[in-house]
Description:
The chain is an alpha+beta fold. It is built from seven helices and five strands; from the N terminus they run ααααββββαβαα. The chain has helices at about 10-20, 20-25, 30-45, 50-65, 120-135, 150, 155-170, and strands at about 75, 85-90, 95-100, 110, 145-150.
Amino acid sequence: MIENTPPEGRSRRARSAAGDTPAAAARAPRTLSEAREAFVAAIARDTPGADRSRLVKVLDALIAWSVARRSSLAFRTDEKRADVLAFARVATGDVFWSALAARDATPTLEIHLPPGRPNGAEDRATVMQTLNAHSRVVLVEGDRLRIGFGALKNEAARAAVLAVMRTLLTDGTDSGEPRSD
């Protein structure tokens, strides 16, 4: 009987069980292209036209770098916020990097170090040194490993950050290099 009843004629509980609610639609996994589109819209909300295309170029470079390493990284389809885009390690599911387009601020890249990594302190120091070398905002011990997209508009800065990310991705079982297939 419920299958033939239109959604507006069903109770809230019946609609929820059938997946006919806005909440059910919001829980549906999003694709990378949908997430990119939402992130670009978040960038556009606070960024003037000339700078916007350069920030989108940074986002596209991060996405392309990650997609090229699909044996090591996977797009997180379950992010709840439209202004966050993240890639996780395939082997563990731990977030490897995330980007946040916060209101009234330049988008930021955050590099996430996995818990229990054997060289965790050294890795953190290397990442912090790389980020500090290319950013006006100086990170100190205890800060999140973040850098603004504004700094990553510079090709040399972007290359250095991607190089340190490649090093972090290499864990002995994966080369961190793109797959050729």
